Amino acid sequence: MTPKQTSVEAAMMPWIPLGPGESFKPLHFAFDARALLLRLEPGTLVPLHRHLGAVHALNVSGYRKLIEENRIVGPGDYVYEPPGNVDSWVATGDEPLVVHIVSHGAMEYLDSKGEVLRRDTASSLFDVYHAYCREHGLTPRALGEASR
Fold first, then answer.
1. For residue 17, what is the enclosing H or E element?
2. CA-CA distance, 59 to 80, in Å (whole number)?
3. Residue 107: what are its φ and ψ, rounded to 5°?
């Protein structure tokens, strides 16, 4: 079977809340990967987390501080995170941060001792997207391969 190309009008997708100051627009779901736009309001922290697969992140707008590196990433900057990378970052400046992220495998949020507090996967974000659509009377878009 030939894979089917998909396209998404990202501007038409809703920002789906993930937590205080954090929301996302899903772009594509695959069995072990997802592509999305992540939006953080200024001052919002992405707490310590570990990626079990590779991550590609391009800042679309706004700034973020990579806490462990003490480095600012701005519009047009690209960050690659290899599997096993552990980091945290915060949205800085006066405008919202928007990052285009392609992530493979799970992302585990960690406590100060390195214990897993929560795990995000393509499947869990797929579920968040579908629950949001149900709650708001929206028809979910077909966003790539099955994520189950």
1. strand 16-19
2. 12
3. -120, 125
- Residue 15 inside a domain? The answer is no
The answer to the question of residue 113 being in a domain is yes
Domain encompassing residue 121? 21-135
Q: Which regions of 30-135 does DSSP assign to beta strands (E)?
A: 33-40, 45-51, 55-61, 63-66, 71-73, 78-81, 86-92, 97-104, 107-110, 116-120
Our count of domains for the chain comes to: 1
Q: Percent of the chain beyond pLDDT 90? A: 82
| Residues 82-101: b if buried by 16+ CB within 10 A, e if exposed | eeebebebbbbeeebbbbbb
Global confidence as pTM: 0.92
Q: What is the pLDDT of residue 142?
A: 83
CATH number at residue 84: 2.60.120.10
Within a domain: 13: no
Nearest to residue 21, comparing CAs of 37, 44, 5, 2? 44
